[in-house]
Design brief:
The chain is an alpha+beta fold and 311 residues long. Helices cover 52% and strands 15% of the residues. The protein folds into 2 domains: 192 residues, Porin chaperone SurA, peptide-binding domain (Triger factor/SurA peptide-binding fold), CATH 1.10.4030; 98 residues, Chitinase A, domain 3.
Amino acid sequence: MKRIYRIAVALLILMVGVSACIPAPAGQSAPPPASQSTPPTVPPSPTPDRPLAARVNGQPIYLVDYERQVAQYQDALLAAGEDLSTPEGQQKLLQMRRQILDWMIEQVLIEQAAAGMGITVSEEEVNAAIAQIVQDAGSEEAFRERLERSGMTLQDLRTQLRAELLRTRVLEQVQKTVPERAEQVHARHILVDTRERAEYLLGQIQAGADFAQLARQFSQDESTRDTGGDLGWFPRGVLLAPEVEEAAFNLQAGQISPVVQSAFGYHIVQTLERKQDEPIRPEHRQLLQDQIVQRWMESLWSQATIERLVQ
C-alpha cells in the first residue's frame, strides 16, 4: 500500500511542474507464461455517441478522458519551463500524447485481465489511500491546495489511485508464479574475444592447466575474472548470456563444455556443483519476477485488438 501512496503523492507533485514522466507501457509481443491464462476478450461494443481515442478489445477509451490527461501533462511541462512552441517542444508534446494513449490502453488491458482473474479494488481501499495522501500532505487544506494546483479533481485522483492499486495487485498475482525454490548450478567460465583463443585455452585446461588461474589471466569478464570466473549459484533464466546458462545446466558436476559462443564472445564453461531443489536468492527471484511480468504484459498487448483513433 505504501508504494501506491508514494505514487499518488509523486503524481500530485508531478502535475505542479516538478516532472512530467509518463509510465512506459510494455507494448511488445511475446508468448504468455504457461502458468497464466489469457484474459477473456471483451466483445466489441456498439459505436458510442461520444468520440473515442481508442478501443481495446472493443472497450472504448473516450476522447474527452484522453484529452484531459494530455492537458494535465501539458500544463506540467509548461510549469516546468518547457517551450512547447519550438520544434523540439512540439516533438516532445507529440511523444507525450503517444505515451499517454499507450498508458491508457495498458490500463484497460490490466483492468480486463483483473476481471478475468477475479481481482478487484474496493472503495474502502481507495478511501484509505486518499486518507494516507492527506496525512502525508500535512493537512486537508494542503492536500486540497496541491490538488487544485495540479489541475486534477478528486475524482481524477481516485481513478488513478484505483488503477494503480489494481495494477499492483494484478502484477503481484503474476509474480507469485515464480517459485521460491528451483534446480540450480554453481558454475564458472572464461570469456575471450576469438574462437581460436578459446580453443587454445580449452586445450590447456584439458591438458591439466588450472581453470581459475587461466580465468584470472585471460578472461575478459571483469565481473568474474578476479574470482577465477566464478558465476556462483544460479537458477535458469538469470544469466545475461543464455548460451552460457544452457551449457552450465547441460553439464554434470566437474564437466567442462566445448567452446560456447554468445553475444559477448566465446566462453569455456565448467559446472562445479548441482542442486535439484535450492532456495532462489532474493535478487535472482526479483529478476525472474520482473521477467515474468514483462512477458505477461507483452502477451496482453500482442493478443489484444487495439484500435487507435487519434494521432
